[in-house]
Backbone:
């Protein structure tokens, strides 16, 4: 086995080692801690991009399995890298780089162990994307959630603690459902390896099959709580709006982990090869997704506080993605994957931008904004400020805000539009010539309406912040705080420019997802590294 | 034995769900713990119930798998217990902080 093959485990080991290392240093050595944390996040992004390049070269295999402990597939634990996991890794790590840079300016000082917790969160995220085993998916979910509980509370304050209490309770219950689902699936199939499971579903007897279907449904609820499908999403706006800005930005990808699990498991377990169980979750996902979009867009319009607006935008994008997952065809999935990456970057940028913009707000003049009390903890201002303030602050912030609005609403010419266009054209074309399904019509109507609602809400907020005040208070924004926003928006612009190659990659990913035979074979066929039968 | 275990899991999970839905944060944490026990027993029982069958293979000689119980759910339940215990402890801390900050043990931080 060559050294390059071990690259696959680096996204899990690197944050783990860094997080443990950072625990050893005293909180007062924060420059050292920040340097190590930032370097590790940058290295993680580098490794993820290398893995993506490996997957997108076109010459390599469709998926690579890594045998932990060198036991062959159904018996040992495997990590599997394929196009989807490489794409998710890159998305998460680039967003993490932006959030990490943003946190350097101020937020790391408002509570202990920020960098360790952040690295643990990254470890959980990478693990969840890479694992090829249901129970390890649970373990990595828990690592990610445990870190996110603490990060949500970062900065403290009554609002965060109350939101954290609800967030933890909901996620603990969801974890119980996850465990029940996993153990039900194990009891009828005798395996937890995703590839091995997929191969066994078709051969189940009818009474076992109904148990499997119940198990996957319960498992699905756990993912949908994470993804924020209506009616399981009421915890989300409160928790996300209460989180500190860099934390909320990373949380934008946390909800996509649930969506990722749905995209990964529903074609694998209940896809075309599943016999009579095939397509079981599709209708549920479609209807639930559409209801989520409807709920989210009303929320977007009703939000007074900007952070709640961003949180409801996450719900809208989750709903769009889940409805697209319910359509279960290659073209829609491809569009959804493109849209997922674009909306993650956009909403991450929006959360960071909101913190910068709200700094300019006079809390007294903004009584309606429910969360303005959140930013009452600005005593962090008197600590040493990092970097220099940028000139023409309001103009730059206003431009970025307008860009965010265009991206969230999905107006041309940027990547938000490309993603939604790919989704809608695929949905309309799915029923064959001349026959457009009613589901596709409602999907079309809701997605376009949600864009309109988002635009209205963003314009209203923009007028209130940048236009209406006679003498606007100019916030003091440092380069290190503005750079992450510029990076994320720049990534969205880059996605627009590179739309063709990215869409081809997304289509190849979607094709592989809906024809999982290659994935299953590659996991099952991966041979042990050491020869001999001495075990 | 199946009936006893099923009733046990049902009572634990049922009381857990009822308590989780109560308004006091102390009731919620006890409910989460009870539901956690119910879930752990459920995982354990998914390996099928066997009496007097060890999960760990004996050393040496040919192995007859029918004499052993499925070890995997027992390993899973250990992991689940550890993770459940840790997250419940974390929840307890948050609960105490919330009580201290808001002066109320209502889950919303204020009396309705």
Residues:
């Amino acid at each position: 086995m060559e050294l390059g093959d071990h690259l696959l485990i680096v996204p899990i080991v690197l944050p783990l080692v860094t997080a443990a290392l950072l625990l050893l240093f005293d909180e007062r050595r924060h420059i050292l801690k920040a340097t190590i944390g930032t370097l590790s996040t940058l290295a993680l992004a580098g490794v993820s991009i290398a893995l993506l390049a490996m997957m997108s070269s076109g010459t390599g295999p469709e998926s690579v399995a890594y045998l932990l402990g060198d036991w062959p597939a159904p018996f040992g634990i495997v990590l599997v890298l394929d196009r989807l996991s490489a794409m998710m890794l890159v998305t998460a790590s680039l967003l993490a780089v932006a959030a990490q840079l943003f946190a350097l300016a101020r937020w790391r000082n408002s509570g202990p162990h920020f960098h360790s917790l952040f690295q643990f969160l990254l470890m959980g995220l990478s693990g969840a994307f890479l694992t090829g085993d249901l129970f390890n998916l649970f373990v990595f979910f828990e690592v990610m959630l445990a870190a996110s509980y603490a990060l949500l509370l970062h900065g403290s304050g009554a609002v965060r603690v109350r939101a954290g209490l609800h967030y933890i309770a909901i996620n603990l219950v969801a974890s119980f459902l996850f465990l029940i689902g996993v153990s039900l699936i194990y009891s009828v199939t005798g395996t937890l390896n995703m590839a091995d499971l997929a191969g066994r579903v078709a051969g189940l007897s009818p009474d076992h099959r109904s148990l499997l279907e119940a198990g996957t449904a319960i498992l699905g609820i756990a993912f949908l709580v994470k993804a924020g499908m209506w009616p399981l999403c009421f915890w989300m706006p409160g928790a996300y709006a209460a989180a500190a800005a860099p934390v909320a930005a990373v949380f934008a990808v946390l909800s996509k982990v649930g969506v990722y699990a749905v995209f990964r498991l529903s074609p694998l377990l209940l896809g075309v090869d599943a016999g009579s169980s095939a397509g079981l979750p599709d209708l549920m996902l479609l209807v639930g997704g559409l209801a989520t979009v409807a709920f989210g867009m009303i929320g977007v319009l009703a939000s007074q506080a900007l952070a709640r607006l961003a949180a409801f935008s996450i719900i809208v994008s989750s709903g769009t993605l889940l409805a697209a997952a319910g359509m279960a065809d290659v073209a829609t999935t491809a569009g959804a994957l493109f849209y997922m990456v674009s909306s993650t970057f956009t909403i991450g940028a929006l959360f960071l931008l909101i913190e910068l913009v709200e700094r300019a707000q006079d809390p007294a003049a903004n009584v309606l904004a429910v969360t303005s009390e959140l930013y009452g903890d600005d005593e962090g201002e008197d600590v040493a400020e990092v970097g220099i303030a940028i000139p023409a602050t309001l103009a730059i912030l206003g431009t970025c805000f307008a860009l965010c609005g265009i991206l969230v609403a999905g107006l041309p010419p940027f990547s938000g539009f490309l993603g939604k266009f790919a989704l809608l054209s695929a949905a309309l074309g799915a029923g064959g010539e001349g026959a457009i399904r009613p589901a596709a019509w409602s999907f079309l109507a809701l997605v376009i309406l949600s864009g309109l609602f988002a635009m209205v809400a963003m314009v209203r907020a923009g007028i209130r912040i940048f236009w209406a005040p006679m003498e606007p208070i100019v916030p003091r924004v440092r380069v290190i705080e503005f750079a992450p926003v510029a990076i994320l928006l720049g990534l969205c612009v880059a996605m627009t420019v590179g739309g063709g190659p990215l869409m081809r990659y997304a289509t190849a990913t979607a094709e592989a997802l809906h024809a999982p035979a290659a994935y299953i074979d590659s996991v099952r066929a991966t041979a042990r590294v050491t020869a001999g039968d001495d075990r | 034995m199946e009936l006893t275990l099923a009733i046990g899991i049902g009572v634990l999970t049922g009381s857990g769900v009822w308590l989780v839905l109560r308004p006091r944060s102390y009731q919620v944490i006890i409910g989460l713990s009870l539901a956690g026990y119910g879930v752990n027993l459920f995982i354990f029982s998914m390996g099928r119930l066997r009496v007097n069958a060890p999960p760990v293979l004996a050393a040496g000689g040919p192995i007859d798998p029918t004499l052993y119980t499925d070890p995997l759910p027992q390993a899973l339940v250990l992991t689940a217990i550890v993770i459940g215990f840790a997250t419940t402890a974390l929840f307890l801390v948050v609960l105490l902080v919330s009580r201290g900050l808001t002066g109320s043990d209502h889950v919303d931080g204020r009396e309705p």
Chain B has one domain: 2-50+69-102. Chain B has three helices and no strands. The mean pLDDT of chain B is 88.
